[in-house]
Amino acid sequence: MAHDPPRPQLEHMCRARIAVAAPRTLGQTPLGERRIIDITGGEVSGPKLSGHVLPGGADWQIIRADGVAVLDARYTIETGDGALVYVRNFAYRHGPADVLAQVYRGEDVDPARYYFRGAPVFETSVPALDWLNRTIVVCTGVRTRDRVILDFYAVA
Fold first, then answer.
1. Domain boundaries, position 67
2. Number of domains in the chain
3. What is the mean pLDDT of residues 14-21?
4. Which of 12, 60, 85, 137 lies at a C-alpha separation of 20 to 30 Å from 47?
């Protein structure tokens, strides 16, 4: 008897509006252009998770020779009742060179013109949020001049 794997469904968890500082560029390294963008705060709101983003995280980026930005963001969310949730988000951002140049200049760019998707992992010790420790999550993103806006979806 053959069984088909279940088709995944996406359930909207929250939207994060993450405030970021200007990028610090370290220059070309053996892996590509290294950039570090400090996370300075932000808000998270949604049906499954709400709170604020604590300052002190960062996004460690490599811009590869093919133009793909490999993003590795790490930060902490504090919920309204004081629970702490660590987030590590691995993502790719790419698109046409002229569109990415607009994004890097901080211009308002239609997010349909470039690809920005991630696979965040959550970690917490809070029993009420334990489901985050064992749920696959994906996200879509938009980059503005001073924010990264992410919609997070639990894969059911």
1. 10-155
2. 1
3. 98
4. 60
pTM (2 d.p.): 0.94
Q: What whole-number percentage of the chain has pLDDT above 90?
A: 96
Residue 123 in domain? yes
What region, left, alpha or beta, does residue 146 occupy, with left being phi > 0 and alpha being psi -120 to 50 degrees?
A: alpha
Sequence-distant (6+) residues with CB within 8 A of 40 are 19, 20, 21, 55
Domain containing residue 29: CATH number: 2.40.160.20
Does 33 map to a domain?
A: yes
Amino acid identity of residue 46, one-letter, is G
pLDDT tens digits, 86-103? 999 999 999 999 999 999
